Amino acid sequence: MKSKFPGEDHLYLQVAEGVEKMIGDDILRIGDKLPSVRVLSKEHGISMGTAFQAYYHLEGKGLIESRPKSGYYVRFNPRRFADLPKKMDPVVTPVEKVTNQDMIMQMIKTMTAEDIMNFALASPSVNLLPAARLSKSVVHALRNDPHQCLQYEHAQGNPELRKQIARLSFNWGGKVKPDEVIITSGCMEAVVMALRSVTHAGDTIAVECPSYFGIYQVIESLGLKLIEIPADPVTGIDLDGLERAIGKHSIAACLLVPNFSNPSGSCMPDEHKQRLVQMLTKHQVPLIEDDIYGEMYFGRQRPRTCKYFDKEGIVLYCSSLSKSLAPGYRIGWILPGRYMDKVSSIKMMHSISCATITQQALAHFLGIGRYEYHLKNLRKALHTQCLRYTQAIMQYFPEETRISRPQGGFVLWVELSKHINTYELWLEAMKHQISIAPGSIFSNSANYSHYMRIGYGKPWDDKVDKGLKTLGNLVRKMS
Amino acid sequence: MKSKFPGEDHLYLQVAEGVEKMIGDDILRIGDKLPSVRVLSKEHGISMGTAFQAYYHLEGKGLIESRPKSGYYVRFNPRRFADLPKKMDPVVTPVEKVTNQDMIMQMIKTMTAEDIMNFALASPSVNLLPAARLSKSVVHALRNDPHQCLQYEHAQGNPELRKQIARLSFNWGGKVKPDEVIITSGCMEAVVMALRSVTHAGDTIAVECPSYFGIYQVIESLGLKLIEIPADPVTGIDLDGLERAIGKHSIAACLLVPNFSNPSGSCMPDEHKQRLVQMLTKHQVPLIEDDIYGEMYFGRQRPRTCKYFDKEGIVLYCSSLSKSLAPGYRIGWILPGRYMDKVSSIKMMHSISCATITQQALAHFLGIGRYEYHLKNLRKALHTQCLRYTQAIMQYFPEETRISRPQGGFVLWVELSKHINTYELWLEAMKHQISIAPGSIFSNSANYSHYMRIGYGKPWDDKVDKGLKTLGNLVRKMS
Fold first, then answer.
1. Which of A327, A475, B179, B420 is the most exposed place for a label (fewest CB within 10 A)?
2. Per-residue pLDDT tens over the stretch B122-136
3. Radius of gyration over alpha carbons of chain A, in Å?
4. Average pLDDT, chain B
């Protein structure tokens, strides 16, 4: 369940993992007293300090709690989650009007507000990011570039940064060359350029349902039509459903978030990815793969990508550093496969190049190995936060509440009782300075009006606890 | 003719201007000996140092020269230019295939090469830009932002930067509010968003002929059609021609560079701008005004913009700091008038926001008044370079060569003998590590194959002189 980095695990993490497994296997049950720190240290032949660290780590995840003058007790079993949200059946025919534009715009206006408890975000709290280290890389770039980063960068992107991005692909087994990478202004520009490269106005795009509202907006703004394919809350898009849609309609491209989809948190198993790519290759339908959350996995290994299984270059792989490192730097990339020339000329025509300074700074930061180091900490923090938020929702919300079990990413997908309209809940919550993302904006045709997305990017603290408690109370009142 | 900043002129500039006027009025003729520095200082009651500075300034512009042990002599009359390039008549019907894409891509590949004498660029040499001061503003931004510029900036752009951009509009008489500004990734993104906001695929856009090749590329890539309207080399687009085209065809928008058009260097007189805006308002045709060169004027006053005459919000004004301050920062803006909501939502959907750090750094740089100061120096330098390059072309090229007389901007538009194909000239010149922009890429239908664009953004020196001499020799050989 928990993150482990082979060959690099700290002793305390190994011990903590052992305890966590015993809780998961119901050997230690909720309420059971744990061995004292002294006993734990003797049992494992570790120092008192290491034993304490192990308990401290488990406490952070909310799995155990310390009771004053009494010791440590089991608090939560990570395998005893709430039920999963249900799979919905959207209307599988092409449609043109694809967004709840008004509701989205209304919500987005409050997104950057700083004085609210913002559960509507799907991004990390800024204090999880290595701000000081990144600033050093900016200063390094200014000092080492002969023109102090004033000149245009190559349209395709800074060569050193492209080398680093190519290296990152090792994490999912990729063998990408720097020449196959185009740097973009974040992942969204990559997705837009991919869509522009493989579609024309009036074409139909297949997406999974639910999908990120920004994807619906972009599809609408490019004059494209949309087919929503049902998706499983754990394994992602329904491949049979997709194949039927391809057989029935002319589909110009498929746009998916295979790893830790937003909002459902689903992650396609490798064999699904392989089958998907084979199917799309057979039908010659390009796949736009949005892998923006791929590095934020909680398990032992980074999930593979669809690009990994792509033999003929039909996958346009898009990602960025906006969710994992530096949102405000606006740096993403695309590996456009066989559409390289098309994407590359669109990039050059439409925005010439990305900012030189942020590209050079990130090339430096990645080049000295700080990104891998940072990601390890970020993954741990997010996993912990995911568990704490889940526990709080289970505690404060009505019993029928269903919650997703993401294995990575930033969000929980929460299904409430059918009677509750989460847009009304949002209006109500905003009176208490709390924001959520109402479910209706994540689909065009499926009825997610009693769903909501809760982002857990903010580290757990009393304010978060209080916010979720208030939200739970509001839900109970509306029930 | 020359730049003057009311109330701020240095004494030496006033004296130099007097001498320049006498040369222009043929009171002092080419070859005439000028009074000695001592006499000049006595005549004007100025110090020897100031008198020397005045001559030094005129020498920099190539108007006078010092002969060793003899004194200063008149070298060039700024009013005796070569003939202007001829106005061409493009085909005024909508067309779809609008670019010489292959030729453009071939040329662009050599654009960033550093080991060549690159007359193909329309931008300032980096050593004309205040690199060190800008770096200080970057460091200031990092230190003063609570999140060290890591967070997303507002989709509309940094509020302080928008305030500074609004202030910049004072220069052309504008009364722009910060809320009316959207920050973009350079001017090209602004133009693309403007086009996307007011057109659909298949619509027809009117442009002046010749126009910047990037504009043709963007129009083609958005699936738009094109009508080229003839333009005068001095006063810009032919308004009667435009009105006839509007009467005859359905035109979705008009896209112009009214100030120092690229490549012709033409600048629409104020009364033309006013008539244009009235005409387009009457016909309800939106005007996309690309004013990227507007601040680089050589005269006494910044030319007005079409936006200035816009009563009903039909002008989408686009500009940037890429040509005047920081190309690699990728910061531009759009004042979308009545299309605010549309442009604003496209910006948010397609690229979320621009880089935080470059926005904050430029907000600081502009806020402390460094931009105005820098612009004064830049304008002087460009005017001088424009004159030196013109003189060299007159000296080294065949007599029939016609040259534009830009009152601002970065480029000369040069017409050679009809027999000369400037694409072949470019191929030949590249063997000598010299690049030019061949005329054919600046129109779809008019035959500019014997024209070329020469950028004078690089300060005058022996290498530039040698480069133009070599180019002149190649042209003579081809004649």
1. B179
2. 889 999 999 999 999
3. 23
4. 91
| Sign, CA torsion A149/A150/A151/A154 | positive
Residue type, A317: Y
Which H or E run contains B332? strand B332-335
Average pLDDT over residues A242-248: 95
- Total residue length of chain A: 479
Average pLDDT value for residue range A188-208: 95
Q: How many CB atoms lie within 10 A of CB A254?
A: 27
Tell me whether A31 touches chain B (CB under 8 Å): no
Q: Cα-flanking dihedrals φ and ψ of residue A269, to 5°?
A: -60, 155
Q: Which of A131, A218, A355 sits opposite B349 (nearest CB)?
A: A218
ipTM of this model? 0.87
Q: Distance (Å, rounded) from C-alpha A434 to C-alpha A428?
A: 9
Identity (one letter) of the amino acid at B37?
V
Contact (CB, 8 A) for A195 and A222: yes
Q: Is A145 helix (H, G, I), strand (E, B) or coil?
A: coil
Q: Which residue from B134, B185, B192 is facing A148, i.e. has the nearest CB?
A: B134
Please identify among residues 186-225 of chain A the ones whose CB lies closer than 8 Å to any CB of chain B: 186, 188-189, 192, 196, 200-201, 214, 217-218, 221, 223
Put simply, the chain A residues between 75 and 134 with a CB less than 8 A from any chain B CB are: 105, 108, 112, 126, 129, 131-132, 134
State yes or no: pLDDT of B6 exceeds 60. no
Beta strands A236-237; A253-256: pairing state? unpaired
With CA atoms as reference, report the closest residue to B290 among B219, B386, B370: B219
Between residues A87 and B127, the one the model is more confident about = B127
Cα B2 vs. chain centroid, distance in angstroms? 17
3 state DSSP class of A453: strand
pLDDT tens-digit readout, B242-268: 999 999 999 999 999 999 999 999 999
CB distance B165 to B333 below 8 Å: yes
Q: How far apart are CA B89 and CA B102, in angstroms?
A: 24
Full set of structural domains in chain B with CATH = 11-74 (1.10.10.10), 101-128+376-478 (3.90.1150.10), 131-371 (3.40.640.10)
Residue A5: per-residue pLDDT = 42
| Range in A63-67, B189-193, B292-296 with the lowest mean pLDDT | A63-67
Distances (CA, A) of B206 to A100, B194, B196, B263, B444: 35, 14, 15, 17, 12
DSSP B78: T
Say whether pLDDT at A6 is over 50.
Answer: no
Task: Verify whether the Cβ–Cβ distance B351 to A330 is below 8 Å.
Answer: yes
- DSSP strand pairing (A315-320 vs A332-335): antiparallel
Average pLDDT over residues A405-427: 94
Which structure tokens are listed for A334? 């695309």
- Give the pLDDT band of residue B4 (cuts 50, 70, 90): very low
Report the pLDDT averaged over residues A387-405: 93
Rg of chain B over Cα atoms, rounded to whole angstroms, equals: 23
**Strands of A309-432, DSSP E:** 315-320, 332-335, 402-403, 411-415
For residue B273, the SS3 value is helix
Interface test with B, best of A139, A185, A334 (most B CBs within 10 A): A185
| Per-residue pLDDT tens over the stretch A432-462 | 999 999 999 999 888 899 999 999 999 999 9
Q: Report d(CA B88, CA A470) in Å as an integer.
A: 72
pLDDT digits (tens, 9 = 90+) for B40-61: 999 889 998 899 899 988 988 8
- Which amino acid is present at B367? G
Residue-level pLDDT at A278: 98
Distance CA B20, CA B74 (A): 10
Which among B371, B353, B475 is positioned nearest to B420, based on CA atoms?
B475
- Phi/psi for B150 (5° steps) reads -85, -30
Average of pLDDT values for A383-407?
Answer: 92
